[in-house]
Amino acid sequence: MVQRPGCGGSTRRSFLKATGGVALTAAAAGCIGSTESDAVRFILNPAEEQTDIVEEYTPMAEYLEEETGATIDLIRAGSYVETLEALESDQADIADTSPTAVPAGEGFADVIGMRTAFGGALYFSTISTTPDSGIDELADLEGEIMTTGARMSTSGTLAPTVMLSQAGLDVGNFPDGEANDLELRTAPDHDTSRERLENDEEIVAAATGAFASASQIPQEQFDDYPEFVEHSAEYDGAGEGIDDDENPELQLLAVSDPLPRAPIMARSAWDASVREDLETALLEAGENDLVPEDVDEEYQLWFTGIEPADRSDYQPVQDILDELGLEFQDFAPDDE
């Protein structure tokens, strides 16, 4: 049975609260330690969107329990960094991590597989504006205010920062400091970044993953990006969510190079007999195992499969970190 133990009245959303992004708190460690001794500790990355990630993962956990006989303990982390720290400090056996965690996990965290969405293992960042902003290309953002996603988000912040730099804008030492040619403001998640563009007249552009923007961008605007057309799960539905009242039309400024979707990783030193069975079940999971038809749309996972992958598949992410002069461990959780 999927375990959701409480601890001192705290919830899954808060009990791995960040303490500077350096180590999990002693209270959190005690919480994890209070689970059943044979439970598989599955740490969940804090969702980019404002969703209940434990609810989203519950069908997958139930599938894994049925396939392997293991007890799965779903635990929501407080930050991107904490998912990796939990593996390193033996407070987790498996973790749903971000792509940026892969380079930093060498030596203690193994890549089990890469999550896919509707058959696609690649995804994309977008930078968009509003049709009446007067912004036609990235170079026009000089002197303007732009919003991005969470500071350590690959598609919400890191890839877009590289896109701005390659367009000739001086991004300074953002996101570990300030940009020079424009003001960049981080948001806690992709949706909030887009919404700030829609609702704040000061902000003229927003960086998000395409999954948070494409439905509001007319499809033909993506046709100049053949890799997006070929590989993005969002291309077919691009523009279909435009609603003048609820979801206003956005204008595309740029699309990133393809990015590898987020991995599921395991603690390298984890030698439990159930590990091989769990990894096999993860890689063999079908869409109905991960997103059952009877699950409310609000609680559906954003991925539909997991394909084999290894550390080399995440070289594009390492390249982004290198270009920005960043390391995963540099980042404390966002304050927002």
Automatic annotation (TrEMBL):
Leader sequence segment? none
- Coiled coil, from the record: none
Question: Which Pfam families does the record match to this protein?
Answer: Phosphonate-bd (PF12974)
| Alphabetical list of PANTHER family matching this protein | PHOSPHONATES-BINDING PERIPLASMIC PROTEIN
Name the record gives this protein: Phosphate ABC transporter substrate-binding protein
The protein's organism comes out as: Natronobacterium lacisalsi AJ5
According to the entry, what is the taxonomic lineage of the organism? Archaea, Methanobacteriati, Methanobacteriota, Stenosarchaea group, Halobacteria
